[in-house]
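User: I want to check something. If I give you two sequences, will you return the structure for each one separately, not as a complex?

Assistant: Yes, each is folded on its own. Here is the first sequence with its structure:
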Amino acid sequence: MTYIIAREYDLLVRGAAPAVAGVHALPPESFDALRVFLQTPIEGNKGQEEVIARPTLRGNQPALRLQQWVGVIRTPDGTTVELLPKTHERDGEADGEAVTRSRSLLLRMLTVAGDNYRAALPADLDPARMPLFEVVLRYGLEILRAAIRRGVPHAYQKVREERAGLRGRLDMPRQLRQPPHRAHLLHVSYDEFLPDRPETRLVRLAIERIARMTARSDSRRLASELLHALADVPASRDVRRDFTRWKLERGYIHFTPALDICRLILNELNPLTAGTASRVTAVLFDMNRVYETYVAHLLRRQNPDWQIETQVKGRHLGSFTSRLSNKRRPIFALRPDLTIYPPGQPVIIADTKWKQLRTDRSFPHGINNADVYQMLSYSAAFQHEMGHRELWLIYPHLPGLPDNFPEIELPEHRYLKVVTVKLHQELPALYPQLSPA
């Protein structure tokens, strides 16, 4: 089976290709399966439809240019493509070390961005050195194990059977029809407290599927232990119906995290975005969204008294009068990444940019004009108070960039600050200095 480790914006080529950095050759069957999946529109960070890869050519060969999505894709023939962040390694770092650091960074950010990855792996496992596909499966098993250890949900089930002794209620209509040679047996009905319910059936099926998909013996062993704990539970035969009937009582709330894992494994959907079912198994994350969530987490952790909202909706840049209804209608919706309310300070609008600044240029290091125009639009819609108005653009830090940047003065007392996050640190410091109001 083919296993490829690629980065954001790398090129996937159909058929043979020379060994060039950032170019990855795929067998024709695998490429064709991926092409359909990767060009299916899905919802991106700002609500617009995006694709995971864009079609292009490399010479005369069909190719796909990856976008800002990371994760794991697996085709029906077993070809696996692991997509890692294009993190900013130091010059001279060995490729294996770079892969480990990129994988470690992604897992650290996902721990914040998604509940599915908050389970702790055993101490003897280093997820940064495991294939990402195996990491996803193992995290799923660990979360399911934690749920099962706290108690398997049970429910009363109506049982009807024929037995030698009386239990529950005698089923008189059936008993009256009992033939003489079976008159010594009783038809009874009673309620029994059993673990056979929609939630446990889905969990069992998810564990069975993980056991088939994983290539690690320790993960298969763990799956076997969990299946033994669910020995009295049959696997779901109607996944869609059981998902609609998923309803946990108060005593079984600890089983709630299992729902996302079951959806991930059984529906093969993207856990953070609106994915689509496909013959291709995929777990994909939009790095724009992951980075935004990670930055919001850092700000909340370091400033617990701040109120921080993400992706605030309901504001528009303009409006127009409809000819049909003669009413004013908003147009050009705005959705800033972060809306920050420091105590006693005017609101701050911030946007996270998963982009590389240019270390080979002087300030403003290649900041896109469109990003600044966007911040002015946000300010017009969200910062109505007069006086000092603060805007932040937050980028990943690169070696060669200064720790502090000059403040950019914009029209009408608006000030733009450029902030960078040192992602290589375990807990990056993110302390922009507030300007006096």
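And separately, the second sequence with its own structure:
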Amino acid sequence: MVFGSASNWFSPTNPNKLVEDGQRARKPAMEGIRSVPDMRQERTPQEADAEIDHEMARPPYVHAILAGGIGGTTGDMLMHSLDTVKTRQQGDPHMPPKYTSMGNTYYTIWRQEGLSRGLYGGVQPAFVGSFLGTCAFFGTYEWSKRLMIDNGIAPSVSYFTAGLVADLAAAPVYVPSEVLKTRLQLQGRHNNPYFNSGYNYRSTIDAARTIARTEGFGALFYGYKATLWRDLPFSALQFAFYEEERELAKKYMGSSNIGLPLEILTAASAGGMAGVITTPLDVVKTRIQTQQPSTSSAPAPASTAPLSPSSTTKHSTPSASHKSSAPSNRPISTSSPSTTLKAHGAATLDTSSVIRGLRLIYQTEGIWGCFRGVGPRGVWTSVQSGTMLVLYQTLLKYFEQNAVV
């Protein structure tokens, strides 16, 4: 009987008994496991999008470089005329200044000098420098940001630091074009009868040759430190604001696709805030790059002025209309546009130090002198950043969907 019972367990007539018993034994355990909530299924769309956004949705470097170059250049070209207005206000050597409010300056330049040679003076070096500079910037920004995030650095710190590193990479290309652009913007048209800036270049090539011949090749890098002082904090603040604002917008929308209105709002507000905050550094940069050799306080006859048509205008001054062999710097207007100051005078910005330049401007012009041109700069950086960053995101999506490069 015992052997008979035992044989029944191994007989072919009941082959599934062990399997059935095993399934019955596992059933309570499997039910217990199934009762545990599936954390992957219960993740919110915001959490899933954030994970994808930080870890996986990384565009190829070629896409980032092309999208950044096209977006940055488009933004710069779109707002070049307003940048000219800002440069005229910041670099105007006349006392009292010819250019006051933003609207008055824009209309005056357009009416007297036209569009291509007035408001869009210096557009050629601006185009070249903008495209090459933004290509270098966005490629470096993406690389450094990913490197820091992958090594455990907080995203907010990574965004800020990546902006600094990216500007360091772009500066060697950007600064020479900025010097040429700024001087041509301040000059306006060749033989300008309406405004005497002290410069009179025939073209961009003539400006580069003249600067290298008369001031040395190093003059093309005038204001290099001042440009870094302005652009490093600007880019760091701009991208820190932008990335954080986009994260808030994603949480608000519940998706990584925040829509065009919020894309424009986040990009424009980030650029505008960073531009306003860094205006004093931009004022110093503009004045260092546009200062030139001139005479001391001794008056000179009007016949020695380099631009005879402008020597008879009410805005010409002896210190800005003739040259001397003595290497001193051009007097800078101490009156701020749209601001009433104690008195009009001239302060010589005879230093390449940003700190000393800021101190000198503040001592002679007050706080409003440090924020000269803040109106056009705030509008310019806001629109330019909005255009650049929205195009950047749009082009990245286009490249990805169409498998470009």
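Because they were folded independently, the notes below concern the second chain alone. The longest strand covers residues 331-333. The first helix runs from residue 2 to 10.
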